[in-house]
TrEMBL record:
It comes from Actinocatenispora sera. Residues 39-86 form the HTH cro/C1-type domain. It comes from the Bacteria. InterPro entries: Cro/C1-type_HTH (IPR001387), Lambda_DNA-bd_dom_sf (IPR010982), MLTR_LBD (IPR041413). This is Transcriptional regulator. SUPFAM superfamilies: lambda repressor-like DNA-binding domains. Coiled coil: none annotated. One of its GO terms (molecular function) is DNA binding.
């Protein structure tokens, strides 16, 4: 990994992994002969996308090709890419204007106030790197004391992977990490010149074999909502449904909101709300 995206290498790996996950039946092709490798053959992708086999080979061998928007659309259809994967592919090849800033946004005070106004629901403000920029008292308690951590530790992926308190915090730990990595990969392609994001990814790949293994899956998915079962060391079992809100004026910022997923979890959040002490803007 380098300070910027190696577009050719990432494009090659991404297209190859998307090809290998498909079966002929899934794209309406007959199964002919014995297959020694998983997924579709390059010839089949070429047929589906109406490009030459040599073109697909050169793409997967990272020979520096930059497909046109038309070819990208054909590959998206051929490989049955999801909406998030399609956006990732276009971002990766820079077929859309780079209208998102690569440096750390100076987030407006209104966004931080919104996080506090959402109390008693736990809420925090994060950026595309998962850096935590602001939080309310309830979220601090849920996340084991955000207001006690040094600034360099305030990143949700770094906390999950490198803070020992979170080792057993998420009941479905690998799923949570896998989804976070898929989201970070989309951000990586959308911000190819973001040296700070690249440095974070380098750090996580080097420090966490778990992250390194899952990063190589090349999964892409932007997570707008979901569920996280937790085992809180102070309050016990807690399951939250999270929702991600995007401020229209700050596309790289996200407000993450937690709601209780069941009655037991609601009682936990009610207890946290009663005990939480309002904090200053994070």
């Amino acid at each position: 990994m380098t300070e910027t995206v190696d577009v050719s290498a990432e494009l090659a790996a991404f297209l190859r992994t998307r090809r290998e996950r498909l079966t002929p039946a899934e794209v309406g092709l007959p199964v002919t002969g014995r297959r020694r490798t998983p997924g579709l053959r390059r010839e089949e992708v070429a047929e589906l996308a109406n490009v030459s086999v040599d073109y697909v080979v050169r793409l997967e061998q990272a020979r520096g090709l930059r497909p046109s928007a038309e070819v990208l659309e054909a590959l998206c259809r051929a490989l049955r890419l999801t909406t998030d994967e399609r956006s990732y592919l276009f971002d990766l090849v820079r077929q859309r204007p780079a209208d998102r800033p690569s440096d750390r946004p100076v987030f407006p005070a209104a966004a931080a106030r919104l996080v506090h106004d959402l109390s008693p629901l736990p809420a925090m403000l994060i950026d595309h790197r998962f850096d935590v920029l602001a939080w309310n008292a309830e979220m601090s308690r849920v996340m084991l004391g955000l207001d006690t951590l040094p600034a360099q530790s305030l990143n949700t992926m770094r906390l999950c992977l490198m803070d020992s308190r979170f080792e057993h915090f998420y009941v479905e730990r690998e799923r949570v990490i896998r989804e976070g990595i898929a989201d970070l990969r989309a951000a990586w392609a959308a911000h190819p010149d973001d040296a700070e994001l690249a440095a974070l990814l380098d750090e996580l790949v080097s420090a966490s074999p778990e992250f390194a293994r899952l990063w190589e899956l090349h999964a892409v998915r932007v997570n707008g909502r979901g569920r996280k079962p937790m085992l809180h060391p102070e309050f016990g079992p807690l399951t939250v449904d999270y929702e991600v809100l995007l401020p229209m004026s700050e596309p790289d910022l996200r407000v993450v909101l937690y709601r209780a997923a069941d009655e037991v979890s609601q009682r936990v959040l009610d207890t946290i709300a009663r005990e939480a002490t309002p904090t200053a803007v994070g």
